[in-house]
Structure formats: structure tokens, C-alpha cells
Amino acid sequence: MDEAVARFGDGLQLVLSPQPQQSSQKILFETGSFTGYHSLSSGFGHGYLSAERTLRQPLCGNEEGWGPLSPFRWDFTPCFIDVWVASVAAFGIIAGSLAIGWLIKWRKPNPVSKDWHFWTKQVLLGLIIANVAVQLAFQIISYPGIWYGDFRVYTTVATIVSLGVIFTIQWLEHERLRNANGVVLFYWLFLIIALSVKLRSLISQQIFASNLPYFVTYCVGFGLSIAEFFFEWLWPKKNSTYEALVDEEECPVEYATVFSLLTFSWMTPLMKYGYSTFLTEEDLWGLSKTDTTKATGEAFATTWEHQLKTRKNPSIWLALIRAYGGPYMLAALFKIGNDISQFTQPQLLKYLLSFVDSWNLPGVERQPVIKGASIALGMFAIAVFQTTMIHQYFQLAFVTGMRIKGGLTSAIYKKSLRLSNEGRKSKTTGDIVNYMAVDAQRLQDLTQFAQQLWSAPFQIIICLASLYQLVGWSMLAGVGVMIVMIPINGMIAKFMKNLQKKQMKNKDARSRLIAEIVNNMKSIKLYAWGAAFMNRLNYIRNDQELKNLRRIGAGQAFANFTWSSTPFLVSCSTFAVFVFSGDKPLTTDIVFPCLALFNLLTFPLAVLPMVITSIIEASVAVGRLTSFLTAEEIQPDAVIVKPAAEELGEETVTIRDASFSWNRHETKDVLHDVNFSAHKGELSCIVGRVGAGKSSFLQSVLGDLWKVKGDVEIRGSIAYVSQTSWIMNATVKENIIFGYRYDSNFYERTVKACALLDDFAQLPDGDETVVGERGISLSGGQKARVALARAVYARADIYLMDDCLSAVDSHVGRHIIDNVLGPKGLLSSKTRILATNSIPVLIQSDYICMLKDGEIAEKGTYRQLVAMKGLVFDLIKTAGQDSSGPSSQSVSPTDSGSETSTIIDAEGSSQEKDTIEEAQEGLSTLQSIKPGPSQSSPSKPKARTGSNTTLRRASAASFRGPRGKLTDEENPSRTKQAKEHSEQGKVKWSVYTEYAKTANLAAVGVYLITLIAAQTAGIGGNLWLKSWSDENTKNGSNLNAGRYLGFYLVFGVGAAALTVVQTLVLWIFCSIEVSEIDDGDAGDQVSCS
């Protein structure tokens, strides 16, 4: 018998074994090439343009009907082949219409010119529409009498309509988007895939022989569609056209296409740059607008306010879902796609193995090449789809977690600023730090596991259904083993959890001891207590912490044993039941899909306990956060804020018949029946004995006290200088500027007025000196003046100062009075309320208010109160002659051994006067500067001449990370903490060698040997199964099942045992031993330093 030769589209020929075949089977095989091309001249069915005179089937006039598979060729029927094209057309019409509505409603057009890129795109699309219209004409001519009822004609018409919708989207997106619309890109991708399948079918039908004009027309349209797709996707729009829309620190994700988002290709420029250059924080892009703390904080604040208003018991869960649930719900769709696709692979693997067997085993009819190619392409496509889905899921989960933590951290911070005095008593600073660091982190971590709550059961159901198709009810044996292993893993997890709790206690004890050693290092050195404290530290670290770590290592080894042995036990039990309970041989197309499914089943069963634990921890965190966010706040209407005063002499602070209390639940008032007013441009002093209520009075103006009755109104912004100076760990300049935009002129005037110039000369780096934690490198007076300079630089409307002169020397106090607080000072145009008992400042004050037992006992000007010889007079008399010293106009540098000997002329230089006068003259041209009253105003209480003018209001600096530094870094700072050197590039082999030597060379060798042996045993088990399945396939039965199962079990248990050995060696003989050496060296370094 002659050999049959099958020719394929790629030019290859395959010689078949001379076996008798039916004619129809030969045609099916010949038409089953990858491209659809064959050399047959007849017998391969009816073409795409052929039609009957009447419709025998609904909407299909072709003789082959709806199929879907053709009875003549290895192909779809002509009617069914258009189902794919029609689906794409429907997608374009429906999704495209929604995209048009979205573009018109939510995207504003920008004045962008239509360049050649735009017109080339639209011309190509116009040619495609014309091409499809020509195809429609061919169809109408070829289907006489039935064209108006044929599905193929409807598909072509729908394609033309969908192309018109896409034409509209591309026209609108040019002025509204900086990237290609996602609907357009997916439309072209799906259309090209559908047209490719149709092109193969047309080749298989040999349309090029029966109707060449139509085939050429179709191929031209197909080529134009490919060109349009790549032109729309890959051809970038010119940046210059859109440069007016781009921010300096914009993240590329803001304008990335949907394909770029799915493949993360928008990261490619950074990856390329990082490949050649070591990346630093300065090289990173800015955050996208939706990921900034401002956006995430506002989103949570809005939903939380809604919860507070609408629910008696507000729920953080609902607030988080409403604020950040949208992307997380989209992540659930990606998770569904991933779960379905990962269980589809084993099914395709079964068909692929069956296809391979048809070509390798004798006596089996060979399957067409297109079937194997389709399966392989399907597996590849599903693998790509699965990778895309899982990474998009993780991306959205991580982004959602990041937004949750950012929003919660912002809410916690803002809430801490609004806590009332009662709330501060129950919510300490340590608690607030834990809310931000621990509880918010637990909710962020939950986003990585929460989807498993539904995904794990979903995966288990799909896996069991797939296993049932392969081995029937034998799969219950493997499931039973997994169920038995669940409580064992639970007991291990409980044991490990107890060890981890104990380990955390040991860590806390060690951390406290280390903090105690570091904080009291000076005393420890002086009293030679280094050895004693090192013994205590070694006891906690070595005898408690490392000893417990050894137990954790042993528990981890046992957990790894159960984890490693479970897949082998499951597969072994399933295969044993399968071979002993039936006659069907255990072949390759059953073994390997089952192994893949069992491996997939292991994850959801193992992750469920972790999900439950994570949910419990998150629930506890939500309870704690709810308690904090619903804690009592300061009275929202305690102070009424109005616009700032414009004219000097206007009232800026008004208190009428007000009483205040530190605790709203107590009846005791700290201030009673207070009536007070302050005016713009005046200095008001609050005086009184210790405990009279001076600080409470200022707190009442800030709104920190509970207002029992009365009214409090302020006009403008407030700057507050507390009695205890607050300094952050930064440079002196950063402490003064405090986030406002740097104004070198006013900055120099501020530090000069606050008597800081000589201090800058004495500090190692001047105003760039890093002051340390809580300003430890500054004296008390310096800290007070830095805090005052910070308030002055803020240029607020109202200044509340709580005895800010008590920490400075007398001559420095005089300088501050003259240059800051007095009528010629920087704040002369501002409202100043000063709580003090300093006599010199009382003399220059405009108004004095005497407090006694929480009530205003006296008020008036200095001369009025002295003439009354009341409480203020007694206070001055008690001060004795101290007021005469600092009240003098100048003080000799040698009069006091103070912290500074600064003497600055209060009048200032003539050049400075000229500068101030020029600034006053130019005020009218600067809209951001608030103008003062005119010279001719009859109602003006004070003249502006001699004043320091109405200061420009400070504006916040737009700090952009390291690029927004206030000064250059040409001269390194002597006080700035040196950056730790970090190696760049790959880890050197010398590091690994040194680590191995420090640990234990013998232990490292054993670990490597057991690692290789465990992997070898696992591979050996799979090869053993393959050998067994091949024997079963040849013999048609399960021979020597006991022997094969026994050896397979030995491979599995051996691999698990080797895993235990390598875990024990890694934990006990490598990691812990190195830790002991490193801790000892670190302790010796600290004790010797």
C-alpha cells in the first residue's frame, strides 16, 4: 500500500505509516495543518461564500450549517466562524458606546492640535471601513435571495457599525487622553485574533481558488487592521504636544495604556536605568495622585464621617470598603480568572499527552497537527493569562493595602490632634504609635489574604471536580489525607504561635535592656558596670532568646516535613485506591495531571488557617481603631473662626461671658465668666500667680478647653509658642521654617530679631546644625528662641505666647521685646497675647489682664493698674528692683554670664530701614500681602509709620523629596548623621564564603548535600511514576502495583526527611551560631566604645 503524504503550510511533509484509512479521515487529517493549507482539490466541504437558495437553519444559508465543527474539514463551519467576529463587533458597539459617554462626561477636551499621527490613524480606519463594506458587497452578491436573513451578512454590518464607534472614540480621545483608550486596544486585539481564525478557515476552504477577489480584499483588510492596531498601540504620541499637561514629578502609570498596565511595561525605563545605574530615592517617580496620602486620607475621612453621621455604632469595615473597595473588587475578578486558568492547565496537559501518544504509540490513529498546535498555543495563552491575572491581583491587593494604611495613618494623626483632655488620658502617645505601626499594618496585611476566604473553597471545588474526571471517586482518598493533615498543621501552628509569643516577650525584654544601656551609657561607663550589663544582655539573648529560637527551628522542621510529605501521601493514597479498585491502567495522561492538581490543592488547604488568623488579628485591630477614632474630641464650636482683620485696631480675639473646664464631665471650671478682647497691632499681657490660669487662658483661645458657656471668636490664623519649647530632630533652619516656603530676606530678619545670630556663629554648622532628638544640643534659652522664631516666621494673624521670655536672660529678653514683641518689633502689626510676669514687657504692653483663681481680677493699661495699686501693683512690688535692670536701653556684654552675649541695635541699620520702607511702598502691587490702613484714615488708632509693616503671609513649601532641600550639599555638615555605606551590585562570593566560615563549614556542607538530595528524591519520584505509567500503557493493566507504590512512597518520605535535616542544620548549626557570634561582637563593640 502506498504511503500517504500530508503537506503542511510551512512546507514540511510528514510520511504516514501505510495503514488503510477511510477517505473522510484522510481529508480531515490533510486539512488539519497549522495554516489550513492543503493540496486536496475536492471533498473538503463548502466555502464561505457558498449558500443555498433557502435557509434550512435559522440565520445560516450555508450547507454545513452551524456546526460548530465542519464534517468535511478540521475546521469550523462558515456560519460559526463568524460568531467570533460578531462577538468582537458586539464588544466594540457596547463597550465603545460606554467609552464615548465616559470621554464626553468625565474628560475635558484640551487644545491639542491634530497632527499627522492622528490623521494617519483615522485614514487607516477609514480604509478598513471601506474594505469591510466591499466584503459586504461580495456577500450580498454571493447570497442571492437569502442575504437579508444570513448571519454572515449581519456580522459584516455589525463590524462596520463597531468600526464607526471605534472611529468616534479615536477622534475624541485625541483631545481628552494622553494614551490610547483601553476599549480601542482590546477591540483591535480581539478583532485580529478573530480574523486570524477566519483567515485560516478561508485558506482551508480554498477561497483563493474559488473567489480570488474576495480573498484579496479580506487579506488587505486583515493587514490594515494589524497596521492600525500597532499604530494605535506602539506609536507614541509626541511629548511636546502634551507637555503642557505633564507635571514635573508625574508617575508614568498616570498615562500608561491598558496593555502597559497589564504587563507593567511602564516600569521599563526605570528598569533599564536601574540595570546600568544604582537606583536611589531621587531616581524614583512621584506617586500617582490616587496613591498620595492626601487622596487616601480624604477618601477615608469622607466615608468615616458618613459612618459617624448615619450609624450609632460606626464600622471601620464599611468605611474602608466604601473608600478603597473598588479596586479590591476588581482584584477579585482577576483572582477568579487566575483560579480558573490554573486549573485549566492540567486538563489541557491531559489532551496534549493524548496527542503525543497518538504519534508515538503503534496502532493508534494519529491526530491532526492543528489539534496539537491548538493545545500548545492554548496552554501558552492560558499561562500568559494566568500570569497577567495573578500579578494584577497582587498589584491591586498591595495598592489597596497601601491606601488603607495611608488613609488610616492620616486619620489617626488627625484624630490625635483633635483629642480632648479626657481622650488624651486614655490614649497615650505609645498607644497612638501602636495604632499607626501595628493595627494599621494588620489591616494592610489582611488585603493579601482576605480574598482567599472565598478563593480557597472555590479552588477546592474546581480541583475536586477536575480530579473526579481523571480518577473518579478514588480522589476522595487523597482528599481524606489532606483533611487529616489539617488538624496536624493546626497543632503545629498553635505550637509555633506560642513560641512566637514567647519570642516576642524575649525581644521586648532585650529591647528594653538595650534602650536602658544606650540611654545610661555615661553612667555605666563611669561606674564600670559594663560587664554586669553585658552579662544581663547575654543571658536574655543567649539563654532565653536563642534557646527559644532553637525550639522554633525544630518546630519549623517538623512543619516542613508535613508540608513536604503531604503531596506524596495524597498522590500515593489516590493512586493506590485507583489501581486496586479498578481495571483501568494508570497511564501518563492520568498521573501527571493528577499530580498537578494535587499540588494546586495543597495551597488552599494550607492557607485557610492563615486567613482565619489574619482576619482575627484584623478584627482586634479594627476594634482598637474604632475605640480610638470614636474617642472624645475637643469641642468643635468652642472657637468661632472668622476672616482676618484688615485694619489696625480691629478686634481679633473676643471672649464674652465664657467659662471653661479641662474635663467636660466635671463641674469644676478652670476659668469663670471671662470677658476679654484683643485688637490687631496690640500687645496684651496675661499676668497672675502660679496656678492662676494663664496657660489655661491661652488654651481656651486655642479651643483645647471645654467651653461651658459664652462665646469665643478669633479673626485670622494663630501661632502658638508653648512654655515648654518643642524642637524636632532636624537642622535649626528647618525648625524655624517648619514647612513654609523659604524667604531668605524675612528669614534673616527673623533670626536677627530673635537674637540667634551669635548662636549660629557658635554652632558647628550655623543654622544647618542638626540639633538632635528633642533639641538636645541646644540650651533652654536657645530652644525657646528657636520656637519663637518658628512662630514669627509663620506670619500668623494672632500670636499666643506662654511665658516665652522665662527661659532667656534679661538682656536677651530686652532684645526680644524691642525687636519682636514691642511697638517697633516684627510683630507690631499683629495681635500678641503674652502670658508672663516679666515687668519689662508689661511696661510696653497695650493691655494687661490679671488672673486670680480662674477669674479676671483686674484689667487695663499698665499705668492704670499701677495707679490703682491693686493686684498688679502688688505683683510688681513683689518683683522688687528686678525690673530696673532689664528695662535699661543697653546691657554690657559682661553684665551676665548668660548663654549668649548678643547685643543688637533695636533700631537696625539704615539699609534695613530702606528695605522695609520699599516693601511698604510696594504692598499695593502684591495681592498676597494684606494691605494695612491708609495714612489718611481717621479711624486708625495707630500710625503705620515706624511699624514693621503688615507681613506677607507665609505659604507652604511644595517639598518634592531630596530635590526640595533648602541648601546645597557642597560643604558636608559636621553635625549631620553620616550615611551608612552600603555596597552596590551583586553580593560578592567572599561574603558567602565568610558567612559559611563564621557559621560552620561542615554544617553548610551538610545543608547543601541534603538540599540537593531532597530535590533529587522528588525528581526521582516523578520519574518512577513515569516509568510505571509507561509500563501500564504498554501492558494495558496495572502490573506490580505494590512494588511501584512502595518505591514511590520511599522517594516521597525520603525527600521529606531530607528537608527536615536541612531545616535543622540551617536553623540550629548555621543561623543561630552566626547570631551568637555577631551579637557577641556587637556587644563588645558597644562596651568598648
Automatic annotation (TrEMBL):
Membrane topology type: Multi-pass membrane protein
User: Which part of the chain is the ABC transporter domain?
Assistant: 653-878
Query: What is the species listed in this Swiss-Prot or TrEMBL entry?
Result: Podospora pseudoanserina
Show the ranges annotated as biased composition (Basic and acidic residues).
965-983
User: What protein am I looking at?
Assistant: ATP-binding cassette glutathione S-conjugate transporter ycf1
Residue ranges of domain ABC transmembrane type-1 in the record: 330-617
Report TM segments: 83-104, 124-147, 153-172, 184-203, 215-235, 369-394, 477-496, 557-578, 590-616, 1001-1025, 1045-1069
Which top-rank group of organisms is this from?
Eukaryota
Where does the protein principally reside?
A: membrane
Keywords attached to this Swiss-Prot or TrEMBL record, sorted alphabetically, are:
ATP-binding, Membrane, Nucleotide-binding, Repeat, Transmembrane, Transmembrane helix, Transport
Q: Where does it localize?
A: Vacuole membrane
Q: Looking at the keywords, is Disulfide bond present?
A: no
Q: Where is this region: Disordered?
A: 880-983
- Any one GO MF annotation of this record: ATP binding
Q: Does the record's keyword annotation contain Acetylation?
A: no
Which Pfam families did the record assign? ABC_membrane, ABC_tran, TMD0_ABC
Residue ranges with Low complexity bias: 881-898, 930-940
